[in-house]
Amino acid sequence: MLECCRRLIEVEKDWIPDKPNHSLYIRPTSICMDNKLGLSRVTKSKTFIILSPVGPYYPKGFVPVKLYCDTTVIRAWPNGFGDKKVGGNYAPTLRAQRDGLEIHNCDQVLWLLHDYVTEVGTMNFFVFWKNEDGEDELITPPLDGTILPGITRQTLIELMKGLKEFKVTVRNFKIQEMIKAVDEGRMYEAFGAGTAAIVSPVQSFNYEGETYQIPIEEDKGAGKLTQRALKIMNDLQYGVVKRPDFQIPVCDV
Ligand SMILES: *Cc1c(COP(=O)(O)O)cnc(C)c1O
User: Fold this and answer.
1) Domains, the chain, ordered by start
2) Which pLDDT score is estimated for 250?
3) Which of the four pLDDT bands, split at 50, 70 and 90, describes residue 247?
4) Which pLDDT value is given to residue 56?
5) Are 44 and 71 in contact (CB under 8 A)?
6) How far is CA 153 from the centre of its chain?
């Protein structure tokens, strides 16, 4: 598949935008091509790659989002398929997203598995706080089968560890831990992480009728670490910094 992508991009290279922060979206896709109706294993499939030039995600700077914690819908569960980018995982989430917007005026859903924090919208989720032991810590949930193993998540974990300025922790944590951190003034920042936006700063979350504020710099629309994370990722993508030892994680789909 990587070789197919390389060959296609070689053919279509004139579509790669040359302006800063524009990109060429590459989306490999597989669909079933069996000529029958019915629920059965696929015997014929078609795999193709969609290419699309896209403009900057934040043409006028960061846009921080408000999150709604839906306690009635679960996006992914243990031994399910939430860790795969299959279409069936996404359509059922759209109603929760719409209700979050129309009823609660929130831009995205913060997906919980019971009380555990998993992902935001279609992005992985990071919290930067002072933990209960008084240490500065960047935390994200582990790949336990309920989390999409995003390349942006993996890259940020490695790059943020490389800074050696704070602890980077991969463990499950509960929404109540986030609430406690906000209440005790230990919450620094929170952001989503995914290819399109790279990082998406969070300004608040609503849980059971209460809204909890997360600090951002008003004029920038994001906290300091979120701004740095975007800069570091951009520098890596534009070859300003080199990471020859960086390994692309193996995809097991
Ligand atoms: C695509 C996606 C992500 C982000 O993955 P990237 O490889 O970083 O783009 C995270 N969570 C979900 C549910 C996704 O669909």
Assistant:
1) 2-54 (no CATH), 65-237 (3.20.10.10)
2) 52
3) low
4) 87
5) no
6) 7
Q: Does any ligand 1 atom lie closer than 6 A to the CB of residue 120?
A: no
In the reported structure, the alpha carbon of residue 161 is separated from the centroid of ligand 1 by a whole-number distance in angstroms of: 20
Q: Whose CA is nearest to atom 5 of ligand 1?
A: 150
How many Å apart are CA 174 and CA 178, to the nearest integer?
A: 7
Give the torsion sign (CA, 33, 28, 249, 58).
negative
> For 177-206, what is each residue's pLDDT tens digit?
999 999 999 999 999 999 989 999 999 999
Rg value, the chain, Cα: 19
**Is the CB of residue 148 below 6 angstroms from any atom belonging to ligand 1?**
yes
130-152 confidence digits (pLDDT tens): 999 999 999 999 999 999 999 99
Query: What is the reported pLDDT for 246?
Result: 56
pTM: 0.92
Q: Which residues of 166-195 are buried (b: 16+ CB within 10 A; e: fewer)?
A: bebeeebbebebbbebbeeebbbbbbbbbe
Residue nearest to atom 14 of ligand 1 (CA): 122
Q: Rounded to an integer, what distance in angstroms lies between the CA atom of residue 13 and that of residue 62? A: 29
Q: List, for residues 97-108, the tens digit of each pLDDT value.
A: 999 999 999 999
User: Can you name the residues that pair with 213 across neighbouring β-strands?
Assistant: 204
Residue 251 has pLDDT above 60, yes or no: no
